[in-house]
Each structure stands twice: as structure tokens, then as C-alpha cells.
Amino acid sequence: MAIKSLEELRELRKSLQNTLKQRESAVGQNDQIELLVGMGTCGIAAGARDTYQALMDVTHQRGLDNVRIISVGCIGSCTMEPTVEIHMPGREALIYGKITKKRVAQLVDDVLINNGYLDDNLLIKSFQKAVT
Amino acid sequence: MTERMTILVCGGTGCIALESNEIIAALKEKLADVGLTEEIRIIRTGCFGFCGQGPIIKLQPDNITYVQVGVEDVNEIVDEHIVKGRIVERLLYVNPRTEELVKTSEEMDFYKKEYRIALRNLGLINPEDILEYIAMKGYEALAVCLNERTPEDVVQLIKDSKLRGRGGGGFSTGLKWELTAREESDEKYIICNADEGDPGAFMDRSILEGDPHSVLEAMAIGGYATGANIGIVYIRAEYPLAYKRLQIALSQAREYGFLGKNIFDSGFDFDVEIRLGAGAFVCGEETALINSVMGRRGEPTKKPPYPSVSGFRGKPTSVNNVETLANIVPILLNGPEWFSSIGTDTSKGTKVFALAGKINNVGLVEVPMGTTLREIIFDIGGGIIGGKEFKAVQTGGPSGGVITKEDLDTPIDYESLKAIGSMMGSGGMIVLDEDDDMVELAKFYLDFTQDESCGKCTPCRVGTKRLHEILDRLTRMEGSPEDLDLLEDLSYNIKYSALCGLGQTAPNPVLSTMKYFRSEYDAYAYRTKRIAFKIIEDKCIGCTKCARVCPVACIEGSPKRPHVIDEADCIACGACYDACPVDAIERP
Predict the structure, then answer these.
(1) I need a surface site. Which of A107, B102, B228, B587 has the fewest CB within 10 A?
(2) What is the pLDDT of residues B258-280, one digit of tens each?
(3) Rg of chain B taking only CA atoms, in angstroms
(4) Do A72 and B134 touch (CB under 8 A)?
(5) What is the pTM of this model?
(6) Topology of the domain comprising B531-588
(7) Quick check: A29 pLDDT over 60?
């Protein structure tokens, strides 16, 4: 499907707006939960593949069908890998660090199901970014 | 049940030292008193990063941040804010410039220290899905360039932005494109240099892994601006994940028609191929890189002619670093004025630094040019591991030098780093603490450069080998004071006579450490450096623990009597130091 004009490209972007709106505004809006797993080399070396797999298994077991798990690049907090950024409806986006596969079940239960926080694993995201 | 409010208390090392654990205990007690335990949740978080204002407390969902909170403030926070909903103004952060009260962390200048341009999409989009890149305005800059701007316009925009090469040299990117564009030729090329080799630097890898399309789009724009129809990504074979994601990105971009024939119906053709490097440091030098792409030995050639005149296959070629390319799209989308408003007089925009070594927050940071080293290392980087003393930071990889405590407040840009004897390089920062030996550090870098020297020119091939030999002799306590003069003399000779950048800069780690840490070199040269551990007689209780762990059995003594280390046999491994229960052992 080749795109041949700027208008077509903008049209396509418009149709994709909802998928990224939540992530850009960093506050969950629709009822979709998004889990962004840092899957750069540092993340994978720290076990992000296992974390990713465990997130799929656990969310499936708990019957959560509104969860999307997305692999993304490295956010720069390499010491805290594997990182999982959580976007939930109506809640501020937060990043959790050192989420190895052992911590996954607790993360899902405490944060996704009980709408709480996971103590000791919370990271603060603190940067500005070029808005394009 | 769901709590109505959450209190986030900073549990970083800095804030714990300032009693944040006691604050948590006091909060719990106070909340129990007023019967709100069920409704309010307290969480100890990781470091907020703004340690100078610690301990920091953030109340959610109100999004109010209190700074420099003490145990004595707990009652007021609970009574006023939590029970009555009134903000405790005296605990808010005061903006030092405007003297206004700041309620949220987002408004604090500190949190604006990091500014992501090259890393803008990292950790946000799925790098293997082109639709997510398109949703972030991906490929719009390319479409606008091809349909609404001439190649000259594009070159001018990049020149106006004052973007400079992020691979180390700091040459104007716009000028580089203009020099290539100016040449008349039937074929031209644009090469992306992804042969990232400085020890400790990994920003290029992260960008290719996390946002490969931004590099591909920038290459197509660069191709249009310079008149090239073929782009080549030269990437190290040691980066398999970046290679894989780049391949996926390439095939998706072709599928959508962003690469290939007649892009956006403009008549412009452009495609990209990937070449794997075989892992030679010198191939990051552009002429050596071009030789390697052509299947020749990765050796540099003399400049001029510059690649912009005669590069790949003898045709005009522009070689740009990954991070440089990652800046192109935001510049075109937001305008050159936006970009040149960030940074210092001579260096615009941001720079990504890879923090490594004895620093708490190892990782990548992107800050505006002009940020000081102190801000990067202590505020963003979280300071030195174990609270040890900062000694120096090594920047610029094997071509750079060390920066000491005295220069921590220098605003960083290309010129200021050069002025203090180091260089920007690709942005690797290796932080050293009080335990690090600067002569050993210089030896490590010389070991690296003599290993990576391609062997084409004598000063580099033989010179770095000799430098390494002298350093090795010194660290084995077999050197002499004359060695120091020889070291310096040889360093300057190599600097002024080597063929390419690798050789010319190889002695920098030696010259820079000699300049700032001459006494450490003297201690080796005059053989006055103590290398053995020592037991303080008065403190030793004769527990025999040290003697039992010593791997070379050089500790003597009978139980309950002071022990003695045989200094001639000690290998300074530190096992006894760690084993001693009463701190009776002194480091050398």
C-alpha cells in the first residue's frame, strides 16, 4: 500500500490518532490499558523478553481482555531495566522499573486490577521532549 | 478498596539520608491518628532526581510536590492538605528565577534539564510498527521536502538550525550537505555512520533499536538535499537487534512507498542498503568507513579529497552519524529557529550522553548543550555509587580526556570541552571515583587504541605500542622519572604526525591524565607508590579472618595477636580489607 501524497499520509495519521493519543498525553483516556515494555538490548539483557511473555500469560489468566502489550525502545534508565510503562484509563502514566518475570503477577494484581501502585518499583519520568 | 489519595515519598539514597524513612513512619502514625489509614496510601518510590531539594513528597492525584520536607512537617501536611484540602505553601518549591511558588514537578526547571529531541520516540512507540511512527508525524517532513521545497531550501534550513555532527567532530551538518550537493556527479551517496565504537557509548544503538524510521526518513531527506539516490547504513555486526529492527523498518518503509521509486509522486528515487561492519574502531573514521563499505581494508586515507568530493566509489558522499540524523526530522517539522533557540552560542540543540562507570543512574540522558557536568552527574545521574568522592569523568572515549572536580561547572559544548583538554566525542561519559587509578586508566585506553590501530601509519602503529609499554612499565613499578618525559614527548609526536583522527587523538588520555594527576604518575615513576595493604596494629584483634582469606598467604600472625601483611608479596586484591570485622586494614 504505497502512499503517494502528503494528504494521504495525513489522512492515515488521522486514522491512527486514537492509538497514540493516550500515550502522548500520558493520561489514559479510552478503556484500553497499554503496557510499554522496554525492549532495547539493555532491557532484553535484563530479562524483558521473559517479562513480556509473563505479562501476556498473567493478563490472559486474569481475564483482562483490554490490555495491549507493546514492545518499545530504551527510555534511558538502563539501571532499572526491565521497565514497564503503564497507561490506564483516567490515570497518570507511570513507569515501573526492575519488573522481572517474578514481579509481573504482583504488578498486574496491584496496579491493573486493584488500581493501586507497586511499591519500590516506581520510577519518575522527568524530561521534556520535542513535540512533533 | 481504592484509596482516595496516594503519597509518594522519595526513597532514593539522597532522601533516605535526609530521613525520608522517618517521614514515612511519621506519616503512617499520623494517618492512623486521624483515622485515614484506609483512605490514603503511602509509597516509597525511587529517586525523583532532584536530590538538592530532598526529601521530596508528591501527592496524587492532586499532583502537588512538596520539597525539603522534614519529620516535623508531617502533622501540617496531614492536617492541612489531606484533611482540609489546603496546600501547604511554605513547603512548595520556589522558582529561584521568578521567586514564584511551584506546585507541580512538571513546572520545575529542574525537570526540564532533560530535553529529548533525538530520543523523542524512544520508549514510546513500537519500533517494529511503522504505523506508530506515522502516528507521530512520521514521514511528513519527507513529504513536505519532496513536494514543497527545493534541495537548496532543505540544505539552507539545516544550515540555519546550526546543527553540528554528533559523532564527535562537530562539523556543521548543513555545510556538509552543501559541499556534497555542490558537486556535479552522475551518482552521489549518503552514508549513515552507525559504527559506534567508543567504550561506554551506546546512544546510536538505542536510537536504531527504538526509532529506526527517524534515521531512515532523515537519510531520504539528506539524499534529496544532496542529490543522492542511494543511502547506506554502516552498522557494527555487534548490534544484532539494531540490525534486525532496521531491516524490518526498511521493508515497511518500502511497502508504504517512503523508499523506492518516485517517492510521494515527486520523481525522486531513494533506497537504503545496510552494510555490516566487521568490528574495527577505526572504521568510525569516515574515509576508513568508506573503504570498508567498498570491501577494502578499513584504513583511512588522506584528506583532502574529502568524501564530499570523492567518497564511496569515488563519488561525492556525505557521511552522517546516527544521532545527527535523528535530529533532522524535528528540525524540519518545528523549524530551524526552534532548534537554534536551544543550547549555547556555538553549539545548538541537545546532546545525548551515555552515563557509565561509578554512577548511580547508568543510562542515557539527552540534555540541552550548555548543561553543566555537575547537573548531568549529580542531578540526573544521581551521584557517585556508595557516596564516594567524585574524582573525574572521562569523556570523548579513547580520543578524549578527563575532566576534574574544578571543571564540573563548565557548561558543556564542543568548544568548552576542547578548552579544558577533553572533547565531546560521541558522548560516552565514564565516571571515576576516588578509588580509580589514573595511570591504569590511561593504560586501558592505550591498550584499546594500540589494539585498534589499523597499522597504516608509523606514529600510530609503533607509537601507541610504545606508549602502552611505558605505561605498563610504570604500573609494574619498573619505570623511572625519565619515562615521564619520554611519555610526554612521544605523545606530542604522535599527535602531530599521525594520519587520521584515531592516531592524532590516541595520546589524549595520557596527556590529559598527566596534566591533572601528575602526582599519580610521579608516585609510579619514583616508585614511591604504596601498593600493599597494611594492618593497623592497635586496631587488629587477631581474629585471623584476613589470614584465612588471603589468596597468596602473605598475612602472618597468631590468634589474638596483631597480624602483619608482607608488603612484598601483597597483590592488593582487597580480600583482607573486606574480611576485617574491625576496619583495622588500610588501603594503599
Answers:
(1) B587
(2) 999 999 999 999 999 999 998 78
(3) 28
(4) no
(5) 0.82
(6) Alpha-Beta Plaits (3.30.70)
(7) no
